[in-house]
Predict the structure.
Amino acid sequence: MVTTDEKGPLTAKKKSVIIRSCDGDEFLVSESAAVLSTSLKKILEEKEDRLIHLSDIDNKTLAMVIAYLSTHADDGLSDDLKRSFDQEFVSGKEFDVLKYLVLATDTLQVTCLCYTVAKKMADIMKNKLVEWVRREFDIQNDYTPEAEAEIRRLDAWAWDDRQLEDD
Amino acid sequence: MHSDWPDLPSELLADIAKRLSSIHDYLCFRGVCSSWRSAATFDNFDNALPRVPWLMYVTGEKKEEEKHVERVANFFDLTNNKTYNITTNFPPSHDKKSYVLSCGGWILCVSEDTGGAVNLTHPVWRVKLDLPCLDTFPEYAHKDRIRFITKMVLSCSPTIKGHLVVMVIWGKKNQLGFSRPGDSSWSVTDTWDGSFSDIIYRNGRLYAVDFRRKVVECDIDGPNPSQIVQVFSFPYLPDLYYSASTAFYLVETSGGLLIVRRGIFDRRTI
């Protein structure tokens, strides 16, 4: 399957590359969008091949990253519009989705998006209990009861306060 | 889809932690699991993010089994109207003859006892850095010890190793001085014939305003850190009432520096 990016079909003037996700889907992306990723830019500089296979990014995540890159490569959009796109882009997304996005942006070295996603994750954790974060993010608490008791004792003010108001 | 969060690389966890603006959230982040704790280090806490400061006040607490009154530092968080009582290893000194100044969450504790020990502490991180004692200032006399240091600013967070400069207004003549952790004595700038009211550190330089509304600059990190250069003199405006009880402050806003005048008795601020 070849999917064109948001700018529509390939024109003769514009160079494009095909990016393949780990599950085999292929995306046609303009070169100007692809090179916003430092990793993709390096690959394109090193080889002539117009097909790039990403072995650790799934199709859903890749589609999101490409939508982001295409928007940011569009010279017709103002910086304000791009900023509001960024806000929309991360809002309402599940933790799992954000996690794969942050991993993908790290691999592809899309620094701006990586920061936007990291900021969104930090915002989700705002004013939350440790237990809430563990539950919602599905994290195994690997502290021994003794170690956790010691951490709680050291920063008792921070732990005790939130125990009372939530959960 | 099963989520395996702790497998996020440490740098990415640190990137997320760095965007937590509240130290309270930062501590909770550290409490989640061991890999999150090792990513959210003391150094990774971003001191540059804008925050509403806490207000600190000290109360006395008398324990039944002890004769003396223990001083407890309380911190009032303006964002949620809560008071936090941080007792672990704080206050930095149980010495009653001491006072504190603060900058960016760091507290300078100055003892008015013999020698005048000075240290910089962070109540949440439980870090304490020793600075040279007051008696290493030139011409320091024990009788001058009361409120010897009146203002303090830091060049950066003390977590950035090797770069910290602590800058102060000191002594009866309100002159400028500075030191770095590990120094054996305080350094002072050339004598200025005015008396300084406020200091601010900006773009690698120390700026100070004196009571005659003159602004000076010191290149603290440069080859000649003791040199004072006048950069601005606020014109005398006859319709403003000036008195000995007027204080001037330097305030940074939108990339510029403002001089704020405060009339202490007439309560007019212009």
